[in-house]
Amino acid sequence: MNFNLQNKKLLILGGDSFSVDIVKTAQSMGVYTIVTDWYDTKRSPAKLVADEYWDISIEDYDLLSQKIKECGVDGVLTGFTDSYLLPYQHLCEINNMPSYGTKQQFEILTDKALYKEWCQRFGVPTIQQYDITSNDIQYPVIVKPVDGSGSRGLQICHDYIELQKAVVESQKVSKKGEVIIERYMTGREVTIFWIFVDGEYYLSAIGNRHVKQNQGDDVIPLPVGYTFPSVVIPKYQQEVEENAKRMFSALGILNGMMFMQCKVDNGTCYVYDIGYRLTGSMEYKILDKVSGYNPIKMLINFALTGKMGEHDISQKVNPLTMQPSYNVSCLCAPGTIKEINGCEQLRNQTGIIDTILTHYPGDIITEDMRGLLTQITVRVLGCVNSRDDLLKVMQNIGETIQIISTTGESLLLPGIQSNDIEGMVI
Q1: Is 199 in the same domain as 179?
Q2: pLDDT (0 to 100) of residue 1
Q3: Which domain holds residue 338?
Q4: Of the N and C termini of the chain, which has fewer Cβ atoms inside 10 Å?
């Protein structure tokens, strides 16, 4: 993968902790980076890593356009937040810069009700949905804002009284004031990853998403890890892959990447969330190491050249035969973080691809963050020689990482166990 982007200027919309990785990756490619949003550097740490930053809202299109021209910006990109995608597309459009998605595509793919309709139209399985006036609602159900992300506004309901209350609360989170009600499915999960290049669609990986109910029944289970490759791949390729590709074609998708989070029942993957963007699971680091292509680098290249930059990707995509790999997600209980230990020790171990902190000493995990992906404090990604090594390595990571509170207590929530992985990895 050779990208010639030396001294190109990239404007990155949003400076949260995940965007730090966009900045560092672009800089490793020789790109001059600029981060903008209206938050301070505490909330937007990517500003401190970038070559330059602006305190300008991502929706202040006139001022941003003026700065783009003055500073000779070559391209614009955003990363991990659904609500930034339409401002990103609009800013690209009015400045005649490449956007990997269109306004219509982002409108559909950031609205749960709309993309469920598209999935159903093309035979991509989705979770059963209810209307609040239905007489046949089978509890428990889950209520979601149609345009939410990061697990915000999600509530599990066990009866009609809880459902009425949850609808009102979730409507407050939704910019559109709209929600959907779905059957609440427990059990196994997978995430399906796609990469798109010039109208060709590649199933890049399917990872097992290991979620754990480690904070009580009233909290949405959060992921404690991912493992690759998943045993559901053959059935998905046989039954759903071509349907998904027909859907992408009908949407007019040409470039970019996508993830689909799914519940698994009898080997069938039922979509419950879609992101036409980078995902915080950072699987692109694993794909770079074990398959030789990196979606984040491809998106950076697209922003600056209008091309994804991987002409031989069909020779590299190998979801079924990719090397066994993992992502350990360390969840932090509510409290004030005093110390995070073990990261440097892990970075020196064989097979570790990267160790990423999303919180730091001094950060506070509040009670309101319970059940949100913002509880993930450390991610460790790596690969092993065989499936049999996955559990041992992942558990060792969980034992090595220490997150200590200002009161001297461990804030690290329980992680991966053998029954989480059993029967899910090829």
Answers
A1: no
A2: 56
A3: 189-421
A4: N
* Percentage of the residues of the chain whose pLDDT score is greater than 70: 99
The predicted model scores a pTM of 0.93
Q: Which tokens belong to 79? A: 């990363």
**Residues 88-101: tens digit of each pLDDT:** 999 999 999 999 99
Angle at 24 between CA 61 and CA 10, to 5 degrees: 30
Do 236 and 166 contact (CB within 8 A), yes or no?
no
**Is the residue at 30 inside a domain?**
yes
Do 227 and 349 share a domain, yes or no? Answer: yes
- Secondary structure in 3-state letters for 225-287: EEEECECCHHHHHHHCHHHHHHHHHHHCCCCEEEEEEEEEECCEEEEEEEECCCCCCCHHHHH
Pairing of strands 52-54, 32-36: parallel
**Domain check: are 327 and 408 in the same one?**
yes
Question: Among residues 119, 132, 357, 393, which one has the least CA distance to residue 243?
Answer: 119
Gap between the Cα atoms of 73 and 69, Å rounded: 7
d(CA 96, CA 79): 20
- Written as one letter, the residue type at 396 is N
